[in-house]
Design a protein that fits this description.
The protein is 5% helix and 39% strand. It contains 2 helices and 9 strands, in the order ββββαββββαβ. The chain has helices spanning 88-93, 174-177; strands spanning 4-9, 16-21, 64-70, 76-85, 105-121, 129-134, 140-146, 159-171, 185-187. Strands 1, 2, 3, 4, 5, 6, 7, 8 and 9 form a 9-stranded mixed sheet that branches. The longest helix is centred in the middle third of the chain and has 6 residues, at 88-93.
Length: 190
């Protein structure tokens, strides 16, 4: 299963990055990110696994963090266990080797510095995800519901732009189910 590749060029003004599903070696500076979700029609998935079993398989040795989203009202919106993708190779692989993503699990892509411009694309994606861009202060700057490509699509035309120092990928429509919005904050320990 191939997910998303990020081609990143960090510059002084507006750096550009293109993320796409791909399981191939990263291009650009190697700051690739990937994502996966439930195996359904892009809905909020009935998965056999739970976050207690995540990360597993290829990701079994990944560091993890509990990520909690808190709204402006101070109420917790949702919490999940995220595998940490904090190196070029881990961001390059992303979730491409995951057959599914438990409903209470995700992947947190960590960059050394804020990225002015990132774009995630969905070539050869086999299920949908939500893509959450988060700034250096851990405030959500943008969210996308990214459905899996249709039967006759490869997903490369699906583009999801944003900026930030972190990108959180969660099961499709997780942000909707948990009323997560721009301005909400993430808390986690790295």
């Amino acid at each position: 299963m191939r997910r998303r590749r990020i081609l990143s060029a960090v510059g002084v003004a507006s750096a550009g990055a293109l993320a796409g599903c791909g399981g191939r070696a990263p291009a650009g500076d190697g700051t690739d990110g990937e994502g996966a979700s439930d195996g359904g029609e892009g809905g909020g998935g009935a998965n056999d696994a739970t976050a207690g079993e995540w990360p597993a398989g290829t990701y079994a040795d990944y560091e993890t963090a509990t990520v909690t989203v808190t709204g402006a009202d101070g109420e917790a919106r949702g919490s999940l266990r995220a595998a940490i993708a904090d190196t070029g190779p881990k961001r390059g692989l992303g979730l491409s080797a995951a057959p599914s993503l438990p409903d209470d699990a995700g992947m947190l892509f960590v960059y050394d510095a804020p990225q002015e411009s990132l774009t995630y694309i969905m070539p050869e994606m086999s299920f949908g995800i939500d893509i959450v861009y988060v700034d250096a202060d851990r405030a959500i700057t943008r969210t996308h519901n990214a459905p899996k490509p249709g039967p006759d699509e490869d997903g490369s035309e699906q583009r999801y732009p944003g900026s930030g120092q972190y990108v959180l990928e969660v099961p499709y429509r997780w942000t909707d189910r948990n009323d997560v919005a721009v301005g909400d904050t993430l808390s986690f320990q790295l």
